[in-house]
Structure formats: structure tokens, C-alpha cells
Design brief:
This protein has five helices and no strands. By secondary structure, the chain is mainly α. α1 (15-28) packs parallel to α4 (59-72). The two termini are 23 Å apart. The relative contact order is 0.15.
Amino acid sequence: MNYEMPEAIPPGVSVDVHMKLANDQWKKDPAVGAFMSWFYYKVRNHGPWDYKQQNHAWEDFGNFHYGAVGRAGQLPDQILLRAAGFAQKRSGTQSTKVDWGKWYWRAPYG
């Protein structure tokens, strides 16, 4: 798949470097749970890679980065999509005007 990099990018941030970090971390211990724990602490709400909390203009970049880095760590799309839906539901930032679905059911995942 081809994806375009969002226009607004935080200065000094390299998706390629973070993808390599994620892949190296996964190679250290390929158990899904071990990588997910490491990844969670990077991307969690107000974590170091939670770019949309740092600047709203970086929201698209943050979503792109989350997916790219998560896949570099061998996380399946379904886990990434559902975890993102769960996080959005938990944060209470969803518009009530849109049916975002349920993170644990069918797309959309919240």
C-alpha cells in the first residue's frame, strides 16, 4: 500500500527511525505482549509519541506514525485499529454526531 506523509510533521521526528526502533524492539522479544507493552508506553495518551496531544496540527501525522510504527513492530492491522478505537472511546474525544462503531465489533472500530 502507498500512503502519503501528512503535511504537518513535528520537527526532528523521523518515522523511519521510529520504525527501525520498533522493529529492533520486536526482534529482541517477538512475543506480541512484550512488544505491545513497549509500544503502548510510547503511544499512550500524553506519551512521547502522542503527537496530537503536543499539537493539534500533528493529529494526522500522529495517526500515520502510530500505524507505520505499529506495523514495523509486527502488530496486525486489527490490533492497531481496535486499540486506537479503544483509546479514542476511553479518552471521550469522539464526536457524538458520528457513529464510530464499537472497538470490539465490526468496522468502524471506534
